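Reading a protein record of the kind used here takes only a little practice. Think of the row as the fold of the chain written in a discrete alphabet. A record is reproduced here so that you can trace the correspondence yourselves:
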Amino acid sequence: MNGVNGLNGNAENSKSETNTRILQALEIVHNPRSDNALRQDASQYLEQIRSDEEAPYHGFGLATEKEQPPVVRFYGLSLLEYGVRHKWSNYTPEQSKALRDWVITLALNLSTEDPPYIANKVAEIWVEIAKRSWGMDWMDMDEVLIRIWNGEIVQRLLVLAILETLSEDVFGNDDTTVALRGNDLNRACVDIFTPAEVLTEQFPTREIMIDVRHGADGWLTRMAALLEWCISGKDIDEKQQLCAVKTLYTFKSVIIWIIPKALVSTQSVNRICACLAVSNIPIQLAAVDSLYSLYNRSRFSEEDFRDIVGPMLKDDTITLLKQLYQWLIVDPSDIDEAKYLLLKKFSEMIFNIGRLLEEHPSFAPEGSNLAGFLDVLLTVMKNPSLHVSIPALHLWVKFLSSDDVGNSPAVTALVGELLETCSHRLVRYESLPEDSKDPSILFLNEDVDTFPEKHAFLGNYARFCNQIVELVVQKQPIDALYHILGQADHVLDHVYDGEPAFQASTYTKTSVPLLRLDAQFTVIEAALKGCLKWLTSSGNATTAHEHDVMASNLRVWCDRLLSLTFEDPSIKQRVIQLAVGFASGPLKREPRFAFKVFDYMLDTRCPEYPGCRAYTDAVRDLQQFSLHQLQRIAMRFPNDLATIFDEVEAKVMSVSRTIDPNGPTPSRYSSVLFIILHRATNIDAQIREARLDLFIQPLIEQWQSSELAQSLTSSEAFSKLLGLDDLQKYLAARAVHKIPDWSSCPLDDEGRALQDRMGKALEALPLRVTKTIMSVSVERLEETSQPFEMACRLWHKNIPLILPNLLQFISRSQAFHDPSNWSGLPPEMQDVVRRILTDRFWQVGISEGTKEEFYAKVGDTRATMEGLASAVRSAVRIVRETGYRLLYYMSLLGEHFYSFPELPGPLSSALFSDACSLSPHQMTILVEMTRPVIENCPEQFRSHFLPPLLSSLFEQLDRKARSEWERIEERSRTKTEEDDLTNEMKDESILRQLTMAAVMFVVGLVEPPKEPPPAAPEVPTAKKNGEMVIPTPEPTRTFILHTPDILKPVILFCTHALLPEFSGDGPVEPEVREFVSTEVLKSCITSLHDPYFVELQRDFAGLIASILISYSPRTETPKEILLSLPGMSADKVDRAVRHLLKAQSNSRQQRAIILDLLEGFRGVAIHEQGKLPRPDPKKMRSKLQEKYMTVDMQTESKREPSPDLTGVAGMFG
């Protein structure tokens, strides 16, 4: 194959004719004046020619013709690439060598006049060939690369591109072709990059199976020398800059896997660091990126740490870092984007260096300037840009949490500045106006595009600040608290300085005085956590006196706080929250102080201003919050409050009647008294239990009322019970279906009276009070505690009296969503039912504005037709979800709930008979509620209790999900430009949330049990071989997998969840194996083909591999499904199955085998179809930045990995 003829030896005249047609087609496609029909025909021809056997030959011819426009040459290269990627396995050795030789020729003939994208494409094709043949039938690649390297700068840049791409594909990406080669390419890369002497030193007994390297230097040595040349002169020209940047990014790709000794022997780290001193932002940015990758490695030996991390802690490097940081300071009002990007990368690099130091402080070489490094870290943390500051802030948390680093003199000397900075940064930035001139807000607006991201980021930033305050106080409690409380005194004395006095008419939750106080109280709350940890960890005679002094000082400060008077209800709420924090924290041994806080909450009042809605809402929030905090104090000090129970009872009931004499408030406040009696151990148990019985008897009588039972016998009676008996008549009379905007239609007197009746009817129901009493009697209690056992006895006899009507409440509230039960509305108004009962809620990333703005908007519509609809849906929702919650509390009682033999059928009917009438959002809540009821079921009751519930749940989920997806698909097909895209996005997002909730429920049911932590020894009940054996309960997974009545609907739902549009018929009486081998496998393949699921192709490939590995030895069905695909041969399928069975322990290779087998059926990413531009890698956030934008980061240290789907895969076995 000499390139004169094609891959199959065709003559030159064929080449000329085809090339002419290709040139004509390209001219038509790229000419803006071309006719659309001609352009489509030309595009179709250009697409078809790629599949021609001679396409690579034509492509090479076009690519080598320098006189052709670059777009033509690039298309020629794409023909070569297509042949390599998709037809390589069909080529003979001679054809493969011809392709290889063509690419080498293209590489040698590159010139400076060629556009960069030509060189990049040549590099990509080179790497694709290397992944398929290097080390197999292409042994001299390294030698060829060196020959090209010795050419001009353009050739060196090409070699760097090849090396960078090869390194990323082999080590960084989950590349299918690489995975199929096993570890061959990994070893080959290590060979050619590493100096020979380092390989010999590190692996003295290493046998060279295949010699792929040329020369002793290795590419790391050549790259380091080139980098030194690029920055050696005083003035760096464009070629040197381009070359240095490319070299550094090649280093970045290699540095994550190369042997550390190779970096040391080639002086690579020193040469990369030298680039930081060059006043050239592109070079500095590339250098910082490379160092970030280097120090992002997970581990170094002590010697490697000394040689690689140690230089960054030397005096001259510290000086360089300080100078670079100062040079990078940017003006927030006129941000230099290049400098600012470099500044953020610099901060992340510092984080990685510090992380390694925190993990191995003893590895730091002698003479390291730790104080200097910490000074750099503190300076970065103080940067007004929170995005620059947060990596340093995060690192300070790590340092202070470390016994070795956190207690060092260098850290201790800076805790004052840390405390000061964190105190100032705990202001609620999200509450400041976006047009604020505060530098942090200006930077924040530059860095964050969406409110959800801002919310998550600021939450993480505040969390780190809180942790630093907590850790500082834990280490230096006396001094730190003195400083913090002194700051708080100053704020309390000047809270309204520069601001107008409080007025209810202008009340807002984001007033400056409130934000000032909130920030300071947040600092104190963080300090209390640190103080509490210090108190519990230091218990010797020396510290006992310090404890007493601190408690006395805190009590004096709190007494002053409680003596202050505030008119703002939100400030009063924050004072109560802080006071309860003191009472349950460092002053938890001071019951007299707890009594004082208890009295303060009961005595807290706010004057009424009915015309000030925002203020009135805040007062209502204060009352609810105070009740919750009273319950908290009652739980913490039950014995102390029991000693003065009569006084407490008299005052609590007096206050409750004062607040709401005719409403449900007295019953809610009685929960405080219930808690005291229930949890006090200094009162005789029989007396307590008798009094508790008296507490709940009126409630039980209400549940047993014949009037209540009668009101739950029909939809009409239920409507009357909720005060909705006149609703349908009212809606029909006002023809609300003809009103497009309900929020602009004020309510008349009849509508307002209807609203009032609903509110009063809802408060008269026993649901809420029962929920309150039941929650305080079972939550936060050990199952072996006396209060829990008492609760079990108390509710065991009362649950059967509550359940019949409770199930009717749930059933009727769900059936209320069925339009057929609204018989009072004419047929043309049936859509009004859905409109009324669809919840309005703020949704992250989709809803416009902030959550506060959304709730303000909802409040503004209270006196409109939309407000009436909101009241209706709220009433029904409260009934439904309170019923769910009561079932959850009952499930915590174990056998006292699950042992009723007649319960499963009625419970399943109540929960799921009308579940499909609910909206997807409401059904998600139903799924989340059902989950703990299932999980809490004791093992001995599973066979009786779980089958009817789980089978009904997943049958309804499958039905609901499919019908909703069909509705969305239908709307998508018929939508017009006038349709509301926001609502469409919201509906689809909500449906995906339902699907995700259900799928995660399945994962929880069938995933294998995790290894249990070591537990305290239990009383053994059996012996085996003379050894005591502790019985282990059977996992729920085992029960589910061996109960076909549950497993069938679960698998059917999961199959449809894989691909919403898939509509295969469910099994009537099939074996699970055959169903999975057909329907699940087809659904996976269809999803693999869908461009929407490109990012999930690896997961689908893993699932397909699991099916083939588990079932192919037992049935031919999976192979038959694969053979039904067009162009799929039996040999190809058999070969893939053989390779899968050999690679059972290598999941990466399994995925690669499947992706290779189904290569022609895989979907193409949207950006590759030209529909969307590919994201700019330089503008993409780093993984660290993405972490800081994630809400879940708060649990990263304790967070378990994503659910392991081996549990699902295990069903195939």
Notes: The first strand starts at residue 1022 and ends at 1024. The two ends are 51 Å apart (CA to CA).
